[in-house]
Design goal:
By secondary structure, this protein is of the alpha/beta class. The chain is 33% helix and 23% strand. It has a six-stranded parallel sheet with strand order 2-1-3-4-5-6, sandwiched between helices. Strands 18-19-20-22-21 form a five-stranded mixed barrel. The chain has a three-stranded parallel sheet with strand order 7-10-13, sandwiched between helices. The chain is globular, with a radius of gyration of 23 Å. The structure holds S-adenosyl-L-homocysteine, iron/sulfur cluster and FE3-S4 cluster.
């Protein structure tokens, strides 16, 4: 009998993929789960895009610049011939669901478009494209379906993200996220606890809970009752082996007293909270439909600091919102000086098609916006530096994440207040929480010695 060895054009068992991630931590979580899924489906991960059979893009649509980056990257890869005729691009993430069918027109290699809710279908979408040669676009699904069908997670290092809810049902007028990730849905409590337990079993020490608004979490408990975020915090903290808990992002709108009480009660909750304020002007906050005032925000911070005096607060601020006047911007600066934020993010307002704010007249010219951003970032930088200097001489409990990128003889760790700490130490400390005395600062990084 003659054996004809035909090499199939696509060999699922031996296919390789490379994944690139932009955007927020929710994308990082999705990307990690896609890695597990692709491996379970017989793919091998490559660290570089060259020679990958499938290039997976997990994209962000929050600002126009984030979106442009992805398309420029594809153009560049094509120019460098990293994308070959038989390379398949699987275009996912928030731009995937935002632009859906439009994307396949951009480059002939885009074989699959998927969204944050359809990550679990990726291997079968790729197979479908391979067998038909027709681009496949699949961006909508029940929010929680993916969590039920993704394979168990692999090793993650000492800190792991756990998404507790998908989507957002708020109506901030500038924001594309509800359009890209859909309406808010919370995962059932037990699913979250099982995922935490699985991580702890793999040696994880720090659990980082994720959602667009974690404090509006309303998940089903075992008894069928709705469980609030504060209760979830107590339940996660009660799992033996959970040494540190972080959560991102909290919206000031629902930062209720029960959450502040949990932060006071649970020392495992890290001493760093990210609460995006967006603006210090009540008029702009109303135009953004944020549903709180700058004084509401100040009050939350006052209570948090009363509960945990060492807590560092970080935030997100948008400058140049269409209705922002010079006086409004000064209100933002006043709030920044009152609250004294640590390491924070600030952006120039970016028009997002389909959002309510995109319909507003925008009289503020780009140079004025850039000037405001410069003033704001300069002040935020000063405040972060002041905090850094204030930490010299203190002792920090740090979770050792690995080797320092700059100097492989040093270890890189993260303090409870979220600052990166580098110090000399043995490899065996990786994955453990140790005490380090801070001796100096290097940019925003703290340098110290183990005690
Ligand atoms: N859910 C979080 C924010 C998620 S988006 C919250 O409500 O706080 C992350 C950040 O991107 C936002 O906090 C905001 O500062 C920024 N952002 C969102 N849309 C933007 C836009 N159209 N232009 C500029 N920045 C934007
Ligand atoms: Fe966007 Fe507002 Fe939802 Fe945050 S709360 S994701 S800013 S709509
Ligand atoms: Fe970007 Fe989507 Fe996150 S738009 S910020 S990746 S939710």
């Amino acid at each position: 009998m003659e054996i004809i060895n035909i090499k199939p054009k696509f060999n699922l068992q031996n296919g390789s993929f490379h994944i690139v991630v932009w955007g927020c931590q929710m994308n990082v979580y999705d990307a990690d789960r896609i890695r597990d899924l692709m491996r379970a489906s017989g793919y091998v991960e490559l660290n570089e895009p060259n020679n990958a059979d499938v290039i997976i893009l997990i994209t962000c649509a929050v600002r126009a610049k984030a979106e442009d980056k992805v398309f420029n990257q594809i153009k560049n890869w094509r120019h460098l011939k990293i994308i070959r005729d038989d390379t398949i691009i699987a275009f996912g993430g928030c731009v995937g669901s935002e632009l859906a069918h439009e994307i396949v027109k951009f480059d002939p290699s885009i074989g699959v478009v998927f969204g944050p809710r359809t990550t679990h279908r990726l291997p079968s979408l790729i197979s479908q494209y391979r067998s038909t040669g027709q681009s496949v676009v699949d961006v909508s699904a029940d929010a929680l379906e993916k969590f039920d069908t993704l394979p168990e997670q692999g090793l993650r290092g000492p800190s792991a993200f756990v998404t507790i809810m998908e989507g957002c049902s708020n109506k901030c007028t500038y924001c594309i996220v509800p359009h890209t990730r859909g309406q808010e849905d919370s995962r059932p409590v037990q699913d979250i606890l099982d995922e935490v337990l699985n991580h702890i079993g793999h040696g994880v020490k720090e659990i980082h809970l994720l959602g667009q608004n974690v404090n509006s979490y309303r998940g089903l408990g075992e008894d069928g009752q709705i469980v609030r975020f504060s209760t979830l915090l107590y339940e996660v903290a009660a799992i033996p082996g959970v040494e540190r808990i972080r959560f991102t992002t909290s919206n000031p709108m629902e930062f209720t007293d029960d959450i502040i009480k949990a932060i006071e009660d649970l020392p495992t909750i890290a001493s760093a909270i990210h609460i995006p304020v967006q603006s210090g002007s009540d008029k702009v906050l109303a135009d953004m439909q944020r549903n709180y005032t700058s004084d509401d925000y100040r009050e939350i911070i006052r209570k948090l600091r009363l509960a945990r005096p060492d807590i560092l607060i970080s935030t997100d601020i948008i400058v140049g919102f269409p209705t922002e006047t010079e006086a409004d911007f000064e209100e933002t600066m006043r709030l920044v000086n009152d609250v004294k934020f640590d390491l924070s993010f600030s952006f120039i307002y970016s028009v997002r098609p389909g959002t309510e704010a995109a319909l507003l007249q925008d009289p503020v010219d780009q140079n004025t916006k850039k000037q405001r951003l410069y003033i704001l970032q300069k002040r935020l930088e000063e405040l972060a530096n002041e905090y850094s200097k204030g930490l010299i001489g203190s002792t920090q409990e740090v979770l050792v994440e690995g080797f320092s990128k700059k100097d492989k003889s040093e270890l890189k760790a993260r303090a409870s207040n979220n600052r990166i700490v580098v110090f000399e130490g043995d490899e065996c400390l990786i994955g453990n929480i140790v005490k380090v005395k801070i001796n100096s600062v290097l940019g925003h990084t703290l340098k110290g010695e183990m005690i």
